[in-house]
Amino acid sequence: MRTKSGKNVEYDYLVIATGSNPRTDLIEGLDEHGDIFYTLEGAKKLREKLRKFEGGRVVVSNAAPHKCPVAPLEITFMLDEYFRAKGIRDKVELHYTYPIGRVHALEPVANWAVPEFEKRDIKYETLFNMEKIEGKNGSGVIHSMEGFEKEFDLLIAIPPHKGTDALINSGIQDGWVPTDRHLLKAEGHENVYVCGDTTNLPISKAGSTAHFEADVVAENIIAEIKEGHPARDYDGKVMCFIETGFSSATYVWFNYTTPPDPVPPSKMIHWLKLGYNRIYWLTARGIL
Cα–Cα distance between 30 and 241 in angstroms, integer? Predict the structure, then answer.
């Protein structure tokens, strides 16, 4: 393996876990006229805009692929509750667009989300792929690849994601490494594992995915060193909490053979998510 500085590094086993990156540059005008929350800088900028926002059309528009697939749903539900708490929900049109023929990539999640949207008066549109953003004085219009337009006063965009430039420049399409779905080995390489967003597997690019894959990769490398062969397969396990406001949440878990089945949102699941976040990082730091 060669580093950016030109140094060659030898290895017995290599784990590629270089993640994914939001690419606002792939949609003309997005940097100038839209906002994102996938970076710290973008989230802070959006926070200030929301504080000053007093009404108009807010559009949450999705591109694909993107990491944390439920995040666009979460921010839409939280915006609805935020504007209600601020007392201006009647002055806000809240719209959501998705690039395929339903409001989420996972059909059971999409089927669950639509009634939630309708209950909260959130407008939604599918088969809408952002191509170009035009704007002036804080508002603007989204042009889709399908030839449609959608006006906005505030655009919260979920930009397309790609893998790291190092992989793209090595000839790997979009930076997603072709990966064996069970062994998590890079195709054609017996001693190279791939973990997290970096794989090309048709599963969620999410923190829990990386966590469950990391367990398999670690155990298999140990087993290969000690016994000469991998110890277990990855079954496609993913688990995601979905915030449905500031005080309620639901969750989904699924794998290669079991589809997700969202449960009714509740305060208990919301608190479970908050507690899980704290416990996870305390465990990672060795405190628990």
Answer: 28
Q: DSSP for 118-150, please give it.
A: HHTT-EEE-S--EEEEEEETTEEEEEETTS-EE
Q: What CA–CA distance (Å, rounded) separates 171 from 167? A: 7
With 0.90 as the threshold, say if the pTM is over it. Answer: yes
CATH at 215:
3.50.50.60
At 230-274, the pLDDT tens digits run: 999 999 999 999 999 999 999 999 999 999 999 999 999 999 999
Total domains, the chain = 2
How far is CA 237 from its chain centroid?
Answer: 16
Mention every residue, 6+ apart, whose C-beta is less than 8 A from residue 113.
73, 103, 104
Which DSSP symbol is given to 175? Answer: G
Last residue of a domain, one of 208, 227, 246: 227
- CA–CA dist 31, 1 (Å, integer): 34
227, 250, 279: which is the final residue of a domain? 227
Token look-up 């060669």 returns 2
